[in-house]
Amino acid sequence: MRKVQFTETVMRDANQSLMATRLPYADFEEILPTMDKAGYYSVECWGGATFDSCLRYLGEDPWERLRNIRKNMPNTRLQMLLRGQNLLGYKHYHDDVVEKFVELSIKNGIDIIRIFDALNDFRNLETALMATKKYATPRTIASGCISYTQSPVHTVDKYVEMCDTLVKMGFDTLCLKDMAGTMSPYEAEHLIKGIKDKVGDVPVILHTHCTTGMAYMTLTKAIESGVDVIDTATSCFSNGTSQAATETMFYALQQYGIETDLDENIINKVNDFFKPVKQKYVDSGMINPKSMATDSQALVYKVPGGMLSNMIANLKDMNAMDKFDAALLEIPAVRKDLGYPPLVTPLSQMVGNQAVTNVLVGERYKNISNEVKNYFKGEYGVAPAPVDKALEEKILGVGGKPIDCRIEDSKRTGEDFAKAKEALGDLCESEEDIMSYICFPAQAEKFLKDRKAKAEKIVKYTIEEA
Ligand code: CO
């Protein structure tokens, strides 16, 4: 019997998409032993914005959160999302930092590392992949992930070729990541069939969002076309900018006669548990009703919803909403000049801001942002298609070429660990603390200072009571 498995995203992507990743560990600890029996392929519970959010907003040690989830879910594969050489931030970290981060992630409980790069420049995945293989346990899975986007150069053939490359690099599974939720059922069918024809037995995973309302149709077509794993969220944390609902897809698959490994009773219990949790954040305003609704604008304008709302906010700030239509028209032009980068962070902001600037100044590229300049210098990686030659010449000079290696290779200075350890002094208790500090220095330092203060208070009370 054919089988399709589920990755439950409530702890990471649903949490990140619906409530800006502000779900504290204490809110879901109690349900973890139950979730451990649900029969998921995996739970996505770490990485993405969870690390930063733990330190910055929740006063939690992200490593401790991971160890606690591991302890309460010994049987389920724990999954994280990793932005290749950027780890969980936006800058390119040194190879030894990337390697150590992966080593510690596995050591603290991660089984599946889903690795992607915003530009699909696979050189930026190599170090994380190598480290995953080096520190792998028998449960470890390295998942190669593609940032899905639509453009004249992003054809089915191109995606199939990318998947082939990822398999040859040594990835165990493949994931298509449609962060804007713009993949149509038709596209899913052609992509999944094309990829399956090429890579055979390698499991293929589809990650999409309900933002534009297409996810259920797209997932259905993907299932009919041979996808192996789908990402879903327990139903009260599904839809809107989040994933499709776990239970809904489960019921649909049952009628297809497709096996899922899910326990119906347990997945319903999981949803019952999360219902009041969600209601608490709807009541407090942390969950914005807008994020729970369907917004088809991304399909109309061919830009992700988040990018559009960013642009509107910028134009309003500058009292220039009358330039909205012109700015919208400018986006495809800028994107073409940049060689059709996927419109994900940080590229969506880069393209959006430059389009707005071009329109406000009234002349294309009279003002060029530093981000766009660095992009042309090759600091983000290789553009998916050739960039505009005249613009390249304007930025790099006549005959100027982008760097032909990773930014990490051209700017290596080293000594991150020694410097971080020294800076932290007696705040540092572990390698994990050092890593938190390297990734998010200000947030980690504040968290570690608070932790020390709390510990000293506890010691003081204990002495007084004794
Ligand atoms: Co996502």
How would you describe what is shown here?
- The protein has helices at residues 10-19, 32-35, 50-58, 62-72, 95-107, 126-134, 156-169, 185-199, 215-224, 246-256, 264-283, 297-301, 305-317, 324-337, 347-361, 370-376, 389-396, 407-410, 416-424, 431-439, 441-465, and strands at 5-8, 42-47, 78-82, 112-115, 141-147, 173-178, 204-208, 229-233, 244-245.
- The protein is of the alpha/beta class and 466 residues long.
- It has three domains: 5-284, TIM Barrel (Alpha-Beta Barrel), CATH 3.20.20.70; 290-396, Conserved carboxylase domain (Cyclin A, domain 1); 415-465.
- α5 (95-107) packs across α20 and α13 packs parallel to α15.
- The relative contact order is 0.12.
- The protein binds cobalt (II) ion.
- Residues 13, 179, 207, 209 line the site of cobalt (II) ion.
Provide a concise account of the structure shown.
The protein is built from 21 helices and nine strands. It has three domains: 5-284, Aldolase class I (TIM Barrel), CATH 3.20.20.70; 290-396, Cyclin A, domain 1 (Orthogonal Bundle); 415-465.
